[in-house]
Amino acid sequence: MKNLTTKLTIAAAVMAVAAGAAAAQTMKADVPFAFRTASGTFEAGTYTVSVDNNQRMVLLEGTGRTKGAWVMPLAALTADKQSAAKLVFSCGADRCTLVQVWSGPNGAAYQFARPKTDRDDEASLVAIAVHR
Hints:
With about 130 residues, the chain is α+β, with helices and mostly antiparallel strands. The protein has one domain. It contains 2 helices and 11 strands, in the order H-E-E-E-E-E-E-E-E-E-E-H-E. Strands 7-10-9-8-11 form a 5-stranded antiparallel β-sheet, with no helix packed on it. A 4-stranded antiparallel β-sheet has the order 1-4-5-6. The chain is globular. About 15% of the residues have low confidence.
Protein backbone atom coordinates (compact mmCIF):
# COMPACT_ATOMS: atom_id res chain seq x y z
CA MET A 1 0.00 0.00 0.00
CA LYS A 2 2.80 2.40 0.89
CA ASN A 3 4.53 1.62 -2.43
CA LEU A 4 1.34 2.43 -4.38
CA THR A 5 0.92 5.74 -2.52
CA THR A 6 4.51 6.71 -3.31
CA LYS A 7 4.06 5.89 -7.00
CA LEU A 8 0.82 7.88 -7.20
CA THR A 9 2.46 10.87 -5.49
CA ILE A 10 5.37 10.79 -7.95
CA ALA A 11 2.99 10.48 -10.91
CA ALA A 12 0.95 13.47 -9.68
CA ALA A 13 4.12 15.56 -9.29
CA VAL A 14 5.29 14.69 -12.82
CA MET A 15 1.89 15.61 -14.25
CA ALA A 16 1.89 18.95 -12.41
CA VAL A 17 5.33 19.83 -13.79
CA ALA A 18 4.29 18.80 -17.31
CA ALA A 19 1.11 20.89 -17.09
CA GLY A 20 3.10 23.94 -15.98
CA ALA A 21 5.56 23.49 -18.82
CA ALA A 22 2.73 23.16 -21.33
CA ALA A 23 1.14 26.38 -20.06
CA ALA A 24 4.31 28.38 -20.72
CA GLN A 25 5.06 29.27 -24.32
CA THR A 26 8.68 30.14 -25.12
CA MET A 27 9.85 32.14 -28.13
CA LYS A 28 12.97 34.02 -29.25
CA ALA A 29 13.14 37.59 -30.54
CA ASP A 30 15.99 39.65 -31.95
CA VAL A 31 15.29 43.23 -30.88
CA PRO A 32 17.57 45.67 -32.78
CA PHE A 33 17.02 48.63 -30.45
CA ALA A 34 16.97 49.45 -26.74
CA PHE A 35 13.52 49.45 -25.17
CA ARG A 36 11.80 49.78 -21.85
CA THR A 37 9.01 48.20 -19.86
CA ALA A 38 7.51 48.85 -16.46
CA SER A 39 10.28 46.54 -15.16
CA GLY A 40 13.13 48.66 -16.51
CA THR A 41 15.26 49.43 -19.54
CA PHE A 42 16.64 46.72 -21.83
CA GLU A 43 19.43 46.98 -24.39
CA ALA A 44 19.21 45.71 -27.95
CA GLY A 45 19.80 41.98 -28.24
CA THR A 46 18.31 38.50 -28.46
CA TYR A 47 15.62 37.71 -25.91
CA THR A 48 13.82 34.57 -24.86
CA VAL A 49 10.18 35.46 -24.26
CA SER A 50 8.25 33.07 -22.01
CA VAL A 51 4.51 33.60 -21.74
CA ASP A 52 3.02 32.00 -18.62
CA ASN A 53 -0.70 31.69 -19.29
CA ASN A 54 -1.50 30.44 -15.78
CA GLN A 55 0.10 33.39 -14.00
CA ARG A 56 -0.57 35.98 -16.76
CA MET A 57 3.08 37.00 -16.71
CA VAL A 58 5.76 37.39 -19.38
CA LEU A 59 9.43 36.66 -18.71
CA LEU A 60 11.99 38.47 -20.87
CA GLU A 61 15.43 36.84 -20.62
CA GLY A 62 18.35 38.35 -22.46
CA THR A 63 21.23 36.32 -23.83
CA GLY A 64 24.78 37.33 -23.10
CA ARG A 65 25.03 40.51 -21.04
CA THR A 66 21.43 41.64 -21.44
CA LYS A 67 19.25 41.41 -18.35
CA GLY A 68 15.95 39.69 -17.83
CA ALA A 69 12.76 40.49 -15.91
CA TRP A 70 9.17 39.49 -15.34
CA VAL A 71 6.70 41.89 -16.94
CA MET A 72 3.10 42.01 -15.74
CA PRO A 73 0.49 42.76 -18.41
CA LEU A 74 -2.17 45.39 -18.00
CA ALA A 75 -4.78 43.40 -19.96
CA ALA A 76 -5.26 40.26 -22.00
CA LEU A 77 -5.98 40.66 -25.72
CA THR A 78 -7.93 38.32 -27.96
CA ALA A 79 -5.78 36.31 -30.38
CA ASP A 80 -7.25 34.45 -33.33
CA LYS A 81 -6.07 31.95 -35.96
CA GLN A 82 -4.28 34.69 -37.94
CA SER A 83 -2.46 36.29 -35.00
CA ALA A 84 1.28 36.11 -35.62
CA ALA A 85 3.77 35.65 -32.79
CA LYS A 86 5.33 39.08 -32.25
CA LEU A 87 6.46 41.77 -29.87
CA VAL A 88 4.94 45.20 -30.49
CA PHE A 89 6.78 48.37 -29.47
CA SER A 90 5.63 51.97 -29.37
CA CYS A 91 8.59 54.00 -30.63
CA GLY A 92 8.81 57.76 -30.20
CA ALA A 93 11.55 60.22 -31.03
CA ASP A 94 14.22 58.73 -28.79
CA ARG A 95 12.85 55.60 -27.12
CA CYS A 96 10.79 52.45 -27.63
CA THR A 97 8.47 50.80 -25.12
CA LEU A 98 7.15 47.22 -25.22
CA VAL A 99 3.35 47.53 -25.44
CA GLN A 100 2.16 44.07 -26.58
CA VAL A 101 3.23 40.42 -26.71
CA TRP A 102 1.46 37.98 -29.04
CA SER A 103 2.35 34.28 -28.74
CA GLY A 104 0.81 33.22 -32.06
CA PRO A 105 -2.42 31.74 -33.44
CA ASN A 106 -4.99 31.14 -30.68
CA GLY A 107 -2.26 31.80 -28.09
CA ALA A 108 -1.96 34.36 -25.34
CA ALA A 109 -1.75 38.06 -26.15
CA TYR A 110 -1.07 40.77 -23.60
CA GLN A 111 -1.11 44.58 -23.44
CA PHE A 112 1.42 46.41 -21.23
CA ALA A 113 1.35 49.85 -19.65
CA ARG A 114 3.32 52.69 -21.22
CA PRO A 115 5.10 55.43 -19.30
CA LYS A 116 3.24 58.75 -19.37
CA THR A 117 5.96 60.47 -21.37
CA ASP A 118 5.39 58.07 -24.28
CA ARG A 119 1.74 59.06 -24.51
CA ASP A 120 2.73 62.63 -25.35
CA ASP A 121 5.23 61.64 -28.06
CA GLU A 122 4.16 61.02 -31.60
CA ALA A 123 4.81 57.30 -31.66
CA SER A 124 4.66 54.62 -34.28
CA LEU A 125 4.13 50.92 -33.63
CA VAL A 126 6.97 48.56 -34.55
CA ALA A 127 6.36 44.79 -34.63
CA ILE A 128 9.24 42.33 -34.19
CA ALA A 129 8.52 38.75 -35.27
CA VAL A 130 9.37 36.04 -32.77
CA HIS A 131 10.21 32.43 -33.49
CA ARG A 132 10.13 29.24 -31.48
